[in-house]
Structure formats: structure tokens, C-alpha cells
Specification:
- By secondary structure, the chain is α+β, with helices and mostly antiparallel strands.
- The protein has helices at 3-11, 27-41, 69-82, 159-162, 176-183, and strands spanning 61-64, 87-99, 102-116, 121-126, 131-135, 138-142, 154-158, 186-197, 200-212, 215-224, 229-239, 243-254, 270-272.
- It has a single domain (3-272), classed as outer membrane lipoprotein receptor (LolB), chain A (Clam), CATH 2.50.20.20.
- The termini are close together.
Length: 274
Amino acid sequence: MNDAETEARRLLAAATEDMPPGIGLLDGFAAARRRDRARRTRRGAVLSAGIAVAAAAVTAVTLTIGSAPPALATVTSALTRTLTQSYQLAEQDSSYYIWNGRMRYPAHDTCTSEADPARHLAAASCSGGVRARVVGGYTYLYVPHPVDHPGRHWARIPTASLGQLPSINSFTTATPQQMLAEIKKADKVTVAGPASGPGWTGTRYAFSGGPGGEIKLSGTVSVDQQGRARVLVLAIRLTSAINVFVTTQVLTFSDFGAPVTVTPPPADQTFSGP
């Protein structure tokens, strides 16, 4: 196994703790994005020193987990419900380093995907070229420049094996399932006010907390009147001695219950992945 395959195997280990059963469909997709971003940001990016985080003033009613469990329960229930039915997903990602007081290596990416957890189907593509499909018990990851498989650009990996690999901590991207797992650990949930979008109205909740230490998590979840998550925003801030890394993901869910059709790549374009 060469270094590239070793790295791919390591990065394919998406965290699966606390996920609802049977819905971890986009782990391989998230791992591919992590690998792609790591390649782009590895150019001298070193995580060292932290900068104080300015807390945004938000007019809201603070509901701690201890005093008002229904707020957290509403958010986690909405995400759990959303991730057990078919849906379309639009995603916007951005990240940057603040290195010696200056912003470095800004990155932006947009992705679209669709998933049907009940039928174990998913497909996703990103502006940066990352593509993935989940169908027939396999996850297919698009490889632009395969080293040992010329002409074959799709790595085929048994989907079940993705959850069997050692998990890693990642600060660059997370699947909706991983976000749900982190929100369950939030120290505080806040009712931030009304929310609305095309054809729906509801309530926006804010959350903060998580692992603690150098890692700060915060975000919002907009829940419609049918109890489904519509918009999920996750911001992760990782600080050390003199630098800080910030990444933000905005996920917009739509078309609940719409049919999802995914076909595997042609056999002559696939190879067995790590």
C-alpha cells in the first residue's frame, strides 16, 4: 500500500459515534473532501497560537440543557427525523487560518447532494471536483488522478467498512450525522427567534459548546413547523499558541420524501479502494 492509499484509508475513517442507525451515507464523501482540503491547505499551514473569539451579541432566550431540555430535544429530534427520510442538500463551506494576525489560505466550496437513508442511496458533488456515490452496498469516490489505475477514476469501497476503520478527529468538515452527534454534546441551546425559507416557517435555535479546550463549536439549526431541520450552520474554531483555524458549514435541506435515484459508475471505470 503506497502513502497515498494509506492516507486515504486514514481519512476515510469518519466518526460514527451517536449516529442514528443506518444513515451514515455520506461519510466517505466527507472524508474525500477532508483529503482534498488537506492537500490544498498543507502548504505550510501550521496550527499554532490562538486569538480570542469575539462573542456575537444575539437577542435570545438562553435555555441551558439543565433547565430546559425541550430546546435540545427539539433540535436533535428535528435532525434525527430529517436524516431518516430522503432529502436534497445544498452545502456551502468556507475556512481560513489566522496566522500571526493575518488571514491565510481562505478556501470556499459548494456542494449538492441527495440521499435516501432507507434505501442506502446517496450522491454528492462539489465545486472543487469531489464526487461520491453510495449504492448497492458500496461507496464510490471519484479520484481525478489515480496512480495505479489509469483510466479508472472511481474507487469502490464497501460502505460497511467505513464504520469499521479507526475514527479520527477532523476540523475541516463534518457530515450532518456528525453534526448531530456534536449538537447532542452542546453545553447550551438558545431560542434565537423565528426562521423562514421557501414554503416554510419555523424557529431558529442556536447552540454552543462541545469538546472544549482549544476547540469551540457553535451554530444554529432552523426547524420548520413540521419538526424538520431546514438549515444547519456549524462553525468550528480551533486555536493554539499564536494561530487559529476557522471553518463554517451551511447545510440547507429540501425536497423531503422526493425519489432518489443513484447508479454505480461503469465497472470498467472502477477499482477497489483502500
